[in-house]
């Protein structure tokens, strides 16, 4: 392997349980699947700080409760990568001020980019793939918690917004398969503040179009850059929000 030649002191683990055998670990980074987060996050925090990429794992109430308990009893920190969530710090700020009323995020992917757990949604997606004409289909619209269950690989952006905002049951997620999006992923973020006494309301609407190398990619090119930035940010001091000792980065 090239990496072994270039970095001969790099240690490779045959199983994640072997992390306990490594003497010094500063940070563990997860960018693979929410199952890994749910299965190993608690034990990882015994060894090092932990950066979560698959934030859909936190939509599961029981696991989130266990992670919350662990984060309060360990010296290590939990980080959540902002990923493709443009305006993450602003959403968090408005939420902390108890000024956030609603968040709706629409994510559009080419059907080949989607990894769906629900059989009916997979059937709809496959029908779109078989169509000769470019078109789009709304696969899901509703609470983020349920969307995280049916499309855990694709909606980490929505999960992150729910985590730092008004929660998984109040945040609305919309997942659209669009066969015309061969070179881009599209994310529309709609944020509304609570009305003021005179009826005025804060509004923010953001559209993010990010190029991809392939219609089959789950993450866009810019999201990879965002994760690298998150990795660099993990040395900063952390803040507490939503009953978890975690920091958006």
TrEMBL record:
GO molecular function terms attached to this record: aspartate dehydrogenase [NAD(P)+] activity; NADP binding
Domain Aspartate dehydrogenase: 136-214
Pfam families the UniProt entry points to: Asp_DH_C, NAD_binding_3
GO biological process: NAD+ biosynthetic process
Domain of life: Eukaryota
Signal peptide: none
Domain spans labelled Aspartate/homoserine dehydrogenase NAD-binding: 10-80
Record protein name field: Aspartate dehydrogenase domain-containing protein
Originating organism: Sarcoptes scabiei (Itch mite)
């Amino acid at each position: 392997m090239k990496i072994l030649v270039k970095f001969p002191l790099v240690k490779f683990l045959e199983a994640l349980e072997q992390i306990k055998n490594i003497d010094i670990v500063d940070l563990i980074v997860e960018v693979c699947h929410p199952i890994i987060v749910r299965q190993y996050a608690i034990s990882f925090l015994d060894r090092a700080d932990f950066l979560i990429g698959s934030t859909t794992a936190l939509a599961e109430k029981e696991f989130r409760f266990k992670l919350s308990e662990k984060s309060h009893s360990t010296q290590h920190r939990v980080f959540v990568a902002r990923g493709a969530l443009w305006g993450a710090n602003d959403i968090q700020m408005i939420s902390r001020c108890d000024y956030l009323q609603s968040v709706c995020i629409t994510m559009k992917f080419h059907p080949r980019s989607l990894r769906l757990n629900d059989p009916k949604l997979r059937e709809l997606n496959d029908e779109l793939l078989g169509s000769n004409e470019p078109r789009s289909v709304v696969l899901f619209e509703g609470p983020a918690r349920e969307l995280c269950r049916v499309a855990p690989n694709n909606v980490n952006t929505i999960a992150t917004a729910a985590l730092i905002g008004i929660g998984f049951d109040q945040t609305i997620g919309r997942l659209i398969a669009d066969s015309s999006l061969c070179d881009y992923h599209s994310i529309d973020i709609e944020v509304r503040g609570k009305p003021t006494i005179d009826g005025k309301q804060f509004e923010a609407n953001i559209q993010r179009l990010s190029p991809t190398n392939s219609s089959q990619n789950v993450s866009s090119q810019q999201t990879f850059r965002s994760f690298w930035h998150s990795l660099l940010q993990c040395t900063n001091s952390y803040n507490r929000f939503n009953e978890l000792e975690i920091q958006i980065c």
